[in-house]
Amino acid sequence: MKKVLLTGAAGFIGSKVAEKLLEKGYKVIGVDNLNDYYDPKLKEYRLRKLSENKNFVFYRVDIENRGALRVIFQEKKPEGVINLAARAGVRYSIENPFVYETTNSLGTLNLLELMREFGIKKFVLASTSSLYAGQPMPFKEDLPVNTPISPYAASKKAAEVMSYTYHYLYGFDVTVVRYFTVYGPAGRPDMCIFRFIKWIDEGEPITVYGDGTQSRDFTYVDDIAEGTIKAYETETGYEIINLGGNHPHQLNEVIELIEKFLGKKAEIVYKPFHKADLKATWADIEKARKILGWEPNVPLEEGLKRTVEWHIENREFVRTIPLP
């Protein structure tokens, strides 16, 4: 399956997946609406690098627009679909739940229905560790994640369930990959690592919700991209598979490492812990090892070093990007 429709291609993870697919000889049909949830300049920066490759073609299309998607399916005839297009962010989903439902749930349905119409069977869906709220750690894929605590998580659960329906009814080969706190160069400016690096470097106080002892299973973007491609290349029937670092780290540790690599100290402002956040995440990745032959290779210290180096090299560009 060397011709892939990749949604969210200008996004942080999507652009890295596209890059690695192109390196492996795939033709990538990129789709993204370039929305302004965060500054589109960052998405355009990622796209410029991809557009240098003759095997990459890009369409500025929203996955909520089934008519526009149908034209792409007709003209480009993809052999499989990787759906990384999504409205992300737990806190913002509470402020604007409707766009999460229409993009993450309805958008996924649009893709599945067009796959049925055009006889395409392979589907990879990006999902989230946010579904595991309240469950015992480490998080295993068979936990009963039926009580999501944010509209974001609820919309992702809906996409997972609809994907199963199309697997059951039409024999789609579906792999759902649940991501755990992805970070890396040119990352999302609404996420803590991008924000912490920018704030510390520019001498601004950083905001921490809680006391900094909350932990995340931080996962470097290259590792996530490789796991996503392995999910695409592996016939699974229907499987939900965690992609995570398999080693939680406290926010305080992250801040200390960023201080080390920037050579600057952080001024920290502590605010109350947000009700919709998880206190900790930790991925059980045994299933990824067994089914995909995947495990992460980049430890947190090395990943943060690379991320800070990108920031320093692109400091003037980063200064122009407002934080959402």
How is this fold's topology laid out?
Layout: E1 3-7, H1 12-23, E2 27-32, H2 40-51, E3 56-60, H3 66-76, E4 80-83, H4 90-95, H5 97-118, E5 122-128, H6 151-170, E6 173-179, E7 182-183, H7 192-201, E8 206-209, E9 215-216, E10 219-220, H8 221-233, E11 238-243, E12 249-250, H9 251-262, E13 268-271, H10 286-292, H11 300-313, H12 315-319
Parallel strand pairs: 1-2, 1-4, 2-3, 4-5, 5-6, 6-11, 7-10, 8-13
Antiparallel strand pairs: 9-12
Helix pairs in contact: 1-2, 1-8, 3-5, 5-6, 7-9, 7-11, 9-11
Mean of the pLDDT scores?
Answer: 95
Low-confidence stretches: none
Biggest β-sheet: strands ordered side by side in the sheet? 3-2-1-4-5-6-11
Shape: globular
**What is the CATH class of the domain at 3-180 and 221-244 and 282-297?**
Alpha Beta
Q: Please, what is the CATH homologous superfamily of the domain at 3-180 and 221-244 and 282-297?
A: NAD(P)-binding Rossmann-like Domain
Q: Helix/strand/pairing class, anyone?
A: alpha/beta
DSSP strand content: 15-25%
Which CATH architecture of the domain at 3-180 and 221-244 and 282-297 would you pick?
3-Layer(aba) Sandwich
Helical residue percent band = 40-55%
The total of helices stands at 12
Q: Could you describe the largest sheet, including whether it forms a barrel?
A: 7 strands, parallel
